[in-house]
Amino acid sequence: MIAIIGAGKMGEALLAGLLGTGYDPTDVMVVEPLPDHAAQLRERYSVDTVTAAEAARRARTIVLAIKPQDMVSVLDGLAADIPAGTLVISVAAGITTGVLEKHLPGEVAAVRAMPNTPALVGKGMTAIAGGLHATDEHLERAESLLSTVGTVVRVPERHMDTVTAISGSGPAYFYFIAETMIDAGVGMGMPRATAQRLVQQTIEGAAAMLNESGEHPVVLREAVTSPGGTTAAAVRELDRHGVRTAFADAIEAARDRSRALSEG
Length: 264
Ligand SMILES: NC(=O)C1=CN([C@@H]2O[C@H](COP(=O)(O)OP(=O)(O)OC[C@H]3O[C@@H](n4cnc5c(N)ncnc54)[C@H](OP(=O)(O)O)[C@@H]3O)[C@@H](O)[C@H]2O)C=CC1
Ligand SMILES: O=C(O)[C@@H]1CCC=N1
What we know:
It contains twelve helices and eight strands.
């Protein structure tokens, strides 16, 4: 039995992803404090919504998908009811396994995970790192659960803030680029629906090339860049505006914010 505590954007993406890949709704419980939202979840996914105490007592695996700022109070509320042997997986940005272990009883196994919202469509990217009491069996259990909604990699915990900045927040960067390209097309007089279609398929095609060709992105970009052509003109403008540096700074800012979130 799995309990998801917190069915916001990420919790619901995981819930929908798990159910969409064959998990039985009777094996999944959700903790959601707002009665209206809880009713919607029961209706939409046919899952049980339960109290945190009930989830702690009944679930073999608990997924915490609440805000980092709520983590300590939720853990403190759960601690008395969690039996030994439970696996607790937190997807919260910045919350270390040390923080989880400090607020969980005895030797409860904690795994820190960083998924992303494409989990909703089975194309998530999740990195996991185990805490002090997480055995290989716990990591395998976390990996097998999260791999139902995409790819899972194990990383040393010291990389988790960087993971958060790259793949956790990453979809937002691509949506930002998509939005910017669509608006540029509209600005030049193209109907929005046409611009959106061009951008969507271009992103999908570029991602497929990156995945399937095995080439470095620089090689793929060079293949698009005809001598004296349009791409060279565009890339020169991106460089002139410091887009590369802006991306590097943005990702570092996300990493730093993730670090700061563990400090409350
Ligand atoms: N969004 C993303 O792309 C990703 C998010 N994450 C992590 O996932 C976590 C959630 O983020 P996100 O989904 O964006 O945020 P949301 O605000 O959408 O979700 C948080 C959810 O937690 C619920 N909640 C608050 N308090 C409790 C409680 N005591 N018990 C049960 N549920 C509670 C909220 O319910 P209510 O609204 O009713 O208060 C809300 O549904 C964060 O820690 C974030 O770092 C990780 C990877 C990617
Ligand atoms: O923005 C956030 O804090 C969360 C963590 C990674 C993606 N969304």
